Amino acid sequence: MSIISDTKEIVELIQKVDNADLYRKIIDLQGEIYEMHGANMELKEKVRELEQQLIIVRELDFNEQDGYYYKEGEPVPYCSTCWENDRKAIHLTKVGADYGGGHNCEVCGINQMAARGGN
Ligand SMILES: [Zn+2]
Asked: For residues 15-33, b (16+ Cβ closer than 10 Å) or e, as one string?
């Protein structure tokens, strides 16, 4: 049984008592319970997101030599701009030498090599 189904059951029982004041009160209470339940779900989702972010914070290391962030064991770097500004771990896409080289970020659109003035 969840708080939502319990509340609905109580509302139905009170409806049978046929007391308008009591019914109005339980309907108000039901609305507040639904609101709190929704807020609780949003908070749980936010905690889940932050936990995921914390895992990534622990896993990403900044490489001073090339200025990229890497996850141990992964050769593909992450966008420094997205990570440092928004804490979004976005893999970069390698750009061929014919197109100027470096790495592009599909989210912020910044070519990482160009942003650092070469290399
Ligand atoms: Zn980016």
From this structure: eeeeeeeeeeebeeebeeb
